[in-house]
Each structure stands twice: as C-alpha cells, then as structure tokens.
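Handout, page 2. Input:
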Amino acid sequence: MLWCYVMTRPRPRLPRWLSAVLLLAVVLASVPAAGQATPFRITHTVDKGGQAQVTVTGRVFNDARADALDVYVTADALDGAGKIVASGVSYVGTVNGGTSSAFLIKVPPTARSAASFRVIVTSFRFGFANQS
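Output:
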C-alpha cells in the first residue's frame, strides 16, 4: 500500500525558467572576458642586419600553472599608422607551466620599413606535456 502512495503522489518540480537561468549562468561563466589577460609574457629583439629578411628573436614565458602545447608566436611589422606591412609565424612547441621557451621568426624584407613590431602568441592549448 505504501508503494502505491509513493509512486502516485506528485513530485515537486522546479520552475522551467530556473533551468534556463542556470544554463545561461554556466555559459556566461565559461566565456572569457573581452579584456582578459593572457598567461604569456614575451620578450623580443628585432635584427634588421645584413640578411634579406628581418629576424625577430625572443622568449615566451608561460605564467600559468598548466603546460601550453602547440604554441605559435606571430611577429607583425607595423607602419607608423599601426597597419601591418609584413608578418611572420613561428612554431614554439610546448611551454611548460612556469617556464619559458625561445623562438626565432623570419619576417619578409618589407618589414625593414616598419616603425615597430608587435609579437603575440596567436595559438595554443592547455594540457599535460609528457614527462619522461
């Protein structure tokens, strides 16, 4: 008799709007903020020496606790107005958390006339590097 009562009584339900609000909160919490700081710091030097191409060398520092895998760094040569006149990309590889890795980028000869250079990490993913 008790089983019949338990199976037939109405169960309390949450309002439908509550599940929509919870879903929206989860989605908004997972989207990064527009001005969110990157976990990377970059130092670089530009060499417009005797070669045809301009060489940008430096180090990328991973300030996060997680390892950054498949890291790519891009060097943009900018004119006085901030427009990109030349660009080069380098694959850095894995940058373990709390460490740094060196990079070297060759930028086309049109970069010789650049007023400044911007160097940024353009692609990476967090994960666990193989520890041997």
